[in-house]
Amino acid sequence: MTELENEENPAGENRSAETAEIPAAEGQGQETTVVRAEFEQLKGEYDQLKKERDALLDRLARLQAEFENARKRAEKEKADFKDFAVGSVVEQFLPVLDNFELALKSTGSLEQLRSGVELIVKQMEEILRGLQVQPVATVGEEFDPRHHEAVGSVEREDLPDQHVAEEVRRGYRLREKLLRPALVRVVSNPKQTSE
């Protein structure tokens, strides 16, 4: 042992093979072998970690590509579904358009034209009912700002105050969802407001 090691380990205790010093003449070759073995072991661990990193990066790249493909596929399916839904609704209204065109080409009397337009309106109402679109209840109903939009008031004594007197434009709802509010005129009953 060297003097420095003797000072640190005065009792001359045995140390492990990795840290034990071999006499100078034959020890340097063994030290180089031990260092080389450690180097090879660390290099092997490094190479293993590098392979694992590369595998994880490859997996990440594949997952990102799969995610991007899934996102694009979902967008395409959404667009296709929208096109299908719009197409099926438009398909139902094409006969209505045909009937309007026939009415425009008609040379009948004003009463015949009116009768034809009334039939077309009924046809449209049937299609809307089939699509579960219902008109908003108006005349005689209590004014409800969630379903009605007031465009004016009408002074009347035969209807209760704050009830709908007239429908200016029909409102519609799809099941429970309001598509557009009904434009209405609201009753202003002077007898009820003075009481």
Outline:
The protein has 195 residues and is of the alpha+beta class. Helix content is 58%, strand content 16%. The chain is built from 4 helices and 6 strands.
Pattern of helices and strands: HHHEEEEEEH
Looking at the structure, the CATH topology of the largest domain is Hemagglutinin Ectodomain, Chain B
**Radius of gyration using CA atoms only:** 44 Å
Distance between the termini: 117 Å
- Please give the share of residues in helix: 55-70%
Order of adjacent strands in the largest pleated sheet: 1-4-5
Name the shape in a single word: elongated
Q: Which architecture name of the largest domain does CATH use?
A: Alpha-Beta Complex
By CATH reckoning, the class of the largest domain would read Alpha Beta
Number of helices: 4
Return the average pLDDT rounded to an integer.
83
**Number of β-strand runs:** 6
Task: Report what the structure shows.
The structure is a single chain. This protein is of the alpha+beta class and 195 residues long. It has 2 domains: 23-131, Hemagglutinin Ectodomain, Chain B (Alpha-Beta Complex), CATH 3.90.20; 134-195, Nucleotide Exchange Factor Grpe, Chain A, domain 2, CATH 2.30.22. It is 58% helix and 16% strand. The protein has helices at 3-8, 24-105, 110-130, 190-194; strands spanning 133-135, 148-155, 164-169, 172-174, 177-180, 182-188. The chain has a 3-stranded antiparallel beta sheet. Helix 2 (24-105) runs antiparallel to helix 3.
